[in-house]
Amino acid sequence: MTAALNRIVVGVDGAEPGRAAARWAATRAAERGLGLLIVHALHVEQRAYGGGLAGPAPWFDLLAADGRRILDEAVEETGTAAPGVRVDTLMPTGSPVAVLADVSKSAAMVVIGGTGKGFFGEMTIGSTASAIIAHAYCPVVVLRARKGTANYPEAGPMVVGVDGSPLSEQALEAAFEEASRRNASLVAVHAWSDVTYDDVYGMARLVTQWESIEDDERRLLAQRLAGWQEKYPDVAVERSLVRDRPRQVLLEWSAKAQLVVVGSRGRGGFTGLLLGSTSQALAHHAECPVMVVRPRLTR
């Protein structure tokens, strides 16, 4: 771990999902021996006067005081969840998405809550999550709970979507690492019914040789897993090769998993279906935390 990636970042907004995200992030930081940076952005544009002029200083002081209260509460939550973790705070002004995207350049992971109003009074956390997933420079975890509950599972298998793309390979690495660290099993899901082939006129035609295609996809999954199983022999792996839509299969697995890991985009086995749509569906509808692996910033 380089010095630049020695912390996990969590965004908080004063609501319970944000506090839960802070507790979850603190626990993960303790597991990894990392520090924690808690971010609350003062989105002053919401209160700006006509012409873009900021409000009077007393109004800003009240906003800042409320932000400090939110950060103090989050620090207290993390101290209870993981007492030994070093915690820093950041309270910038501006768009929370832009702030989190910027600090993600030097983070091991960004964590945000998956329900509630989130940072914006007029924008749901789902929209915030979508934007952060699209712009972060490190893995993003959206903390989703079991359907109809506030239960963020800590038991069950890790589940990873495999499609053969470079980001899918990074997702595999992250999933194996998480499974090994938490002594959990791993389910590797490869869905292949979305495979189509285009003729020279660009018209998709249905492929009916399912058995032949299934053999090819089974080999692809085995090849992708082989090296990681050698590196992490302690992780029990279940292979799930299904003829179905990848997002639907992964959403179903999320109801019994403790974490689902996917790349932010990709093609490979999901030819014709960008994984971006799968990761976004999971961020909005999964029943467990979702880790979306993002391309690292090239320096």
Automatic annotation (TrEMBL):
Coiled coil: none annotated. Residues 6-144, 158-294 form the UspA domain. GO terms for molecular function: ATP binding. The keyword Glycoprotein does not apply. The keyword ATP-binding applies. Signal peptide: none annotated. It comes from the Bacteria. Belongs to the universal stress protein A family. This is Universal stress protein.
